[in-house]
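Fill in residues.
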């Protein structure tokens, strides 16, 4: 691993070092859900974080390849479900299947939340966000920043992390482009 920031490296070496560093921080996994005009969608997300203290704000990055992304462009309310280390089945459902082909909500228990956003009954740790901003820098993900309108947690929990789900074959690869019809 290159630890000298002044040493020149190839793009591949930087990418390899970046990937190694990111693997070590092992982000917690969440399921993000949205609903627009009676259509619900949700996907597994590993890019997310609190992004402001005052006012409190939360950011998440959605892959442009996902069905959820298309609804998110029009949605005003989002739910972020923090997965516990026993939630592998939910991770598989929302990360391994695509809403282009499957209604994921027929396969799990949920209830409508604020703004009609689906709240997964099995996830006791969640945020509901009202859209504050959406940023698209032209990359493979867009950044959504939201204001919390509800926060729910039960007892302490151990988050399900990226290494716990890295064997899930994604419903869409991040490099795929949405084909609008």
């Amino acid at each position: 691993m290159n630890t000298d920031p002044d040493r020149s490296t190839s793009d591949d070496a930087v990418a390899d070092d970046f990937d190694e560093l990111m693997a070590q921080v092992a982000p917690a996994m969440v399921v993000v859900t949205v609903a627009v005009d009676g259509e619900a969608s949700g996907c597994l997300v590993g890019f997310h974080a609190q992004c402001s203290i005052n006012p409190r704000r939360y950011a998440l990055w959605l892959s442009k390849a996902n069905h959820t992304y298309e609804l998110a462009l029009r949605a005003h309310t989002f739910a972020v479900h923090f997965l516990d280390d026993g939630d592998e089945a939910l991770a598989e459902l929302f990360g391994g299947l695509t809403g282009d082909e499957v209604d994921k909500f027929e396969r799990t228990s949920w209830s409508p939340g604020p703004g009609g956003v689906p709240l997964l009954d099995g996830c006791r740790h969640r945020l509901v966000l009202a859209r504050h901003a959406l940023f698209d820098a032209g990359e493979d993900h867009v950044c959504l920043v939201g204001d919390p309108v509800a926060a729910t947690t039960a007892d302490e929990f151990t988050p399900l992390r990226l290494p716990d789900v890295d064997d899930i074959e994604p419903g869409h690869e991040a490099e795929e482009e949405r084909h609008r019809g």
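Helices lie at 11-25, 67-72, 88-96, 162-165.
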